[in-house]
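Step 1: inspect the first sequence and its tokens.
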Amino acid sequence: MRRWLLIVVLGAHPAVAQVAEKAPVAEAADRTAEEEPRPAAGGPKFIGIPIPIYNPQLDFALGAIAMLTYPLDSEDRLSPPSSTSLFGLVASNESYMLGAGQRFYWDEDNNRGTVGFAIGHFNSDFYGTGDQTSADIAFPLGTTGVMMLAKYLRRVWNRLYLGGQYRYLHTDAVLEAPSEPPEELDTFTPIEESSRSSGAGALVEFDSRDNQFSATSGFYAPVATIFYAKALGGNVNHGAVEASVNWYRALHAKELILAARGNLQAAFGDTPEYLLPAIGKGADLRGYATGRYRDNIFMSAQAELRWYFWRGLGAVAFTGVGSTTSSVSQVFHGPVLPSYGAGIRYMLHRDERLVMRVDYGHGNEDGMFYFSVSEAF
């Protein structure tokens, strides 16, 4: 039997740290006409909300988010508000997570940075990779992990940003035998493994959104690379590339918004199975358990109609499709994975368009609920 490696489900709210060395400032004349000064900055705004969660991986869980948003410079009318976040989660299957992060925007949005940290333990299921994934055979997986990240972006022209990132992930995990193993797995014994991934990479972003939390116009097109290396403290050399394009258009004032997103992820080198592109790990294709499908390449497209109809209350309908595959030559041979669903929204702060969302997504198997602060994309 092939050797099964391990998966971790661990994340942190984004956060930002200033960088001491500054590149030349982009001139205001280079900015698009869409970039309008914001109203005079107000004081800090605090949000604290509980987040009930249910999905096939965690069973029932209760999370909580505490977020403080604030301007770094009250005279700066172009930078989005910075934020400090704390997040915690406890699940009925004995999983837990604690995370913290900061996100900073400064110097008229010429500088952006993020730092984050999370620690937790997750009891979940491992379904395999590629054409070996199976909803009928799930390996119980207990993973304890620590994650750290840091990102910095500098505006170089118009709405174009260049920068870099660093990520570190340490996991200790135990893969158990399935609860009802087939005959060929009768002799399966638990696998224990400790792994480290430490890597750095380049970032490119074009961002003409009118708002970071709930955009009503513009584009957001990030491209991220990451190269994990033994020289940086990891166990193995491998890498990944991710590219996305998000588009937003207000159909009626800022109350009816059409949003669309395309995403492509690819892994190369000796990528551990727990770091392969996987469905359910981010904003793409709601309605699937995390890691239910994973392979060297993951691609998806989705569209969402958002309607804010009364006093900050809104409703959303979304649909999408995606696939995983082993290589570019097999790009049209992977499973077709539909996604559709609906949700409700509430504008916690209308001036900053900070949104609380509750979605129900369905795929080709069981559906899932999603609770979060900010739109899905």
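Step 2: inspect the second sequence and its tokens, then contrast the two.
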Amino acid sequence: MTLNDSSTRDLEGAVTELDQAASATNAPAAAQPQAAAVPTGVQTLPMVKAINAGLRRAMAEDPSVLIMGEDVGPLGGVFRVTDGLHAEFGGNRVLDTPLAESGIIGTAIGLAMRGYRPVCEIQFDGFIFPGFDQITSQLAKITNRLEGAGSLPVVIRVPYGGHIGAVEHHQESPEAYFLHTSGLRVVSPSTPNDAYWMIQQAIQSKDPVLYFEPKSRYWHKGEVSFDAPGQTLHKTVIARPGTDITVVGHGAMVSVLLDAAAAAAEEGVSIEVVDLRSLSPIDWQPLLESVQRTKRLVVAQEASGFVSLASEIAATVTERAFYVMEAPVLRVAGFDAPFPPAKLEKLFLPDVDRVLDAVDRALAY
């Protein structure tokens, strides 16, 4: 699609209408159809529905919140994360864009500078690279360029990771590229409850946030408490206590680590599972305290291991906890090769057996 197609004209028209409404109402965005009441109590939801509910609540509470991306409108996104939001809030706040990730991010930057809080959807992880320059050269640097005089509250939702049997560019783990870039916050929920609260906390942030959604966990269910967030956005948590060894991961890998811990418990090995939740900045203290207790650490991730998040964790923990460690930090990661065809993805991605093998090697020191 080209930049002068009908989708672009629709997007330009929607932004113009928003600005006109803002001038008329002295508010950042136009009033929209009445949103549904915010749920209360505890419900069991799949992650995809939890993110949807979090987006709905953020939009209901703040008229400056917009959603934009490819097919996010009436279709509700390829994973249906934005299902129903177009009908509820209208086409001026849930905007279908051209197939142009650079244009999506660039437009979001302009909207943020005008007082809006855009939430961009990158349809699949491998599609983010056409927008890479806008993210790393502009979005990440403008606040510093302005010496703090302005902020860019842009959220970029990125469905990422494997285990869905997709083709090239549709299941990758590109988070390390953005962790290396100062000025970006990067988070990844592993549970529906975290997904619900963390998307709202990301939207409320004054800084740009990349919100990596583990798409293999989209339809796994869990309890969501609508009344109070369990943790702040950048808090590392203990997902399962243990005494013999610490394993740490994020996103979909946390469920693999929990399965590994359950299997190890049957053999009398107590594994403490740490859910990182925030990849940049990292809340180091809970992880370091865990390693000081267990004296061993395994880091697991779906992404390739060379120059990765796992590399940084291994280096930092070795620096800060060297004298209590009884074994070197071991890494379990995707192989240093392009993501393979679907029929080979189980060989590429870390599983319970590969995690337990690393646990055994660490315990053998």
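Step 3: confirm your contrast with the notes below.
The longest strand covers residues 297-304. The mean pLDDT is 89.
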